[in-house]
Structures are given as structure tokens and as C-alpha cells.
Amino acid sequence: MARPLTKTVNLSSIKHNYLLAKALHPTSKAFAVVKANAYGHGAVAVAQYLDSTVDAFAVAAVEEALELRESGIKSPIMLLEGVFEASEWSLCERHGLWSAVENDAQVDALIDSGCHIEKVFVKVDVGMHRLGVDPDRATELVERLRQSNYVNEVLLMSHFSSSDDLLSDTTSKQLAVFKRVHKNCGNIEGSVANSAAVLKWDIPEGGWIRPGVMLYGISPFNDITGKELGLKMAMTFTSKVISLRVIQKGDRVGYAGSFEAQKEEIIATVAVGYGDGYPRNAINGTPIIVNNIPCSLAGRVSMDMITVNVSNVPDITLGANVELWGDTLPVEHVANHSSTIGYELVTRMTSRPRIQYR
User: Fold this and answer.
1) 250's torsion region: left (phi>0), alpha (psi -120 to 50) or beta?
2) Distance of alpha carbon 244 from its chain centroid, rounded?
3) Active-site residue among 74, 173, 249, 255?
4) Phi then psi for 31, rounded to 5 degrees?
5) Cross-strand pairs, 60
6) Cβ of 111: how many Cβ atoms within 10 Å?
7) Domain residue spans of the chain
8) Catalytic hit among 7, 15, 22, 35
9) Rounded distance between C-alpha atoms, residue 57 and residue 31, angstroms
10) Which of 216, 257, 167, 218 has the alpha carbon at shortest distance from 340?
């Protein structure tokens, strides 16, 4: 029997979440962000399912875009980080890719290449200080691209640093900077909204929104789950119990004996570990579902296995079903017990779990 570890991806849930993003901003077009292998869900399978639905896809780099084109994807594809080498502009022209630009070198390379690109998004740094041209120079880059005759449409974009913090005024301040730049650039479409902004912020009408993690049913906020936001979880990560033992009060479990039994307990060993993408820093008490009953991690996560306290599961047997996160157990809850976020858990999964689509 194969190792019983499965990552099940519900493609219709991803479509539901994309259409929800569109419904929240009906005057805007929407990228489906499928970078990082569609946040661990399988970029090719996800894009093939959504190809006839989306306005466009967005990826981080040209390699990700070419993988989609080679799999038959016809929709427009946007490079969120732009090109890294001048030679990539010819790939953009050949494969009909759109791109962001955030500095003079990228613009110079485009003009020098003589390539024709349908849409180029000038990224503006409104305060995150990661990527983007200074707001006072954005109009200059926009005009250079307009006058070059190599770009059919120039657009403006930015990225918020704190849109997941609804109590902070940072997003309002950054949006004000973007609106000022947008006004100075004249008649031009914009794109500012990531998942958090799509779900909870008042953003300009029209232009483009960029739903990313929300497509996969995961909340961008610390204190609310995707389900509570009306999203459908796309991934269910499951395994099975492969060993059982009864331990006594004072017995310790796992590396360094990090779990100590306070009474007689039943410990199940489950086939999953950090070699599969389950978080090594998950603490004792991290929730796990066994035979539809809430249980908890007991002991340190190993490369290939975890140990779970299943004392409250009636008639527990080898082969019992285990949900690590998914429909019943939100990935956000596991992330909260692991000092991380749901984004990281799904994107850092390895190729070892068997994947199936429905």
C-alpha cells in the first residue's frame, strides 16, 4: 500500500472564490494569482480549470508563465515582478505576456529590445519599500512607455504593506498616495488590491484586482478564517494512523520527549512530517482531526511522522482517517499553532504527498 498521505484540491472551490472576488468589485477585472505553483495547489491544473473563466492570470516570473503556456493556457498572463533579464522581453512578446516594471533598467531594456507588449503595469512604491518607482517619478515612466510605441496600454499598480491589519491607517495613507499618482497620470487603469484589500477595503472602482491567497479559501487576516469570509477551502490534507500505543503517566513522546503524559493516553503515529510540508514548529496541542473527532499533536514533528493524542477517539484502529487541515480543520488554525500563516503552509509543501483533483 502506498504511503497514505494525500493532498486533495477542489477546483470548483477555487472558481467559487474567484467569482466571489469579482462579485465584490463588479466594475473591476480580476487576475487569478497562480504564482508559487498556485500557492501549492498545482498551477497547471488550476489554470486549466479556470482558463475559460478568468480575465487573466498573474505569476511571479516568466518561468511560471511559460509553464502555463506550454500546458495550453490561452488567457493573458501577467508577470508581477517583471523581467529579470533583458532577453525576457522577447519571451513576453512571443508568448503574449504582460509585465510590471518598477525601474529604469526594465524600461530601458524594453525600449532597446523593440518588442511590442500588450500591457505594462508601472509599479509605484507607496510605502512598502520593496518594489516600485518613487511616486514622484511614476508619471515619467508612464510617459516614456506611452511615447515608446512599444506598449499598447500602460497601467499603474502598487501593493499595500498592511492591508491585513484592519485597525491600521497605513492602507488609507498608501491608497491616498496611489490616488495622487493615478490622477497625475491621467486616463489610466490601476491595480492595488490584493486579497485583503479585495475582501475588506474600499478600493477604486474599475481597473484590476489581484485575488491571491483568497482563491484557495485561505484568509489573509490573523483573526478570521476563510470560511468565515465566505470562501471555500480548496485543499484538504489527509493521512492515516499507521501505529498505536498506550502510554502511562510520566511517559514522554517524540524527539527530546517534548510531550509528557499526565495520565494513561493513547498515542497514534500518523504518516506526515516536515519532509512533506507539515510545520516542524507546530506545538503540542496543535489541532488534528481523527475519525472526525478533534485531537491534538503530542510530541515534536519528525521528518516523516507525527504523534497524536487520540485518547478521546472511540474504537481507534490502524488506518483511521486523519485530517491535517481542510474542510473541517481550517489551515489558519494549524498556522496559528505554528507561529506562521496559512500562505506558508500550503506553498512550502513538498512533492511527496499524493495529489488528486476533484
Assistant:
1) left
2) 35
3) 255
4) -75, 140
5) none
6) 17
7) 11-222, 235-357
8) 35
9) 5
10) 218
Cβ-contact 73, 57 below 8 angstroms: yes
Q: Provide the pLDDT confidence category of residue 248 given band limits of 50, 70 and 90.
A: very high
CA distances, 315 to each of 243, 270, 291 (Å): 14, 17, 10
* Helix (H) / strand (E) containing 47: helix 43-50
One of 3.80.10.10, 2.60.40.1120, 3.50.50.60, 3.20.20.10 is the CATH number of 11-222, namely 3.20.20.10
Do 208 and 188 touch, CB atoms closer than 8 A? no
CATH superfamily ID and name for 235-357: Lyase, Ornithine Decarboxylase; Chain A, domain 1 (2.40.37.10)
Q: What nine digits make up the cell of 45?
A: 491544473
Query: Can you give the pLDDT at residue 318?
Result: 98
Helix, strand, coil shares of the chain as percentages rounded to 5? 30, 25, 45
Say what percent of the chain tops pLDDT 90: 98
| pTM (whole model) above 0.85 | yes
pLDDT digits (tens, 9 = 90+) for 250-308: 999 999 999 999 999 999 999 999 999 999 999 999 999 999 999 999 999 999 999 99
φ, ψ (nearest 5 deg) of residue 178: -60, -45
Largest CA distance in the chain: 77
Predicted pLDDT of residue 297: 98
Candidates 355, 333, 356, 351; CA nearest to 275 is 351
Catalytic annotation on 274?
no
Query: Which DSSP string do the residues of 35-72 spell out, in sequence order?
Result: HHHHHHT-HHHHHHHHTTT-SEEEESSHHHHHHHHHTT
| Cα-trace Rg, the chain | 23
- What percent of the chain is modeled with pLDDT above 70? 100
Is position 35 annotated as part of the catalytic site? Answer: yes
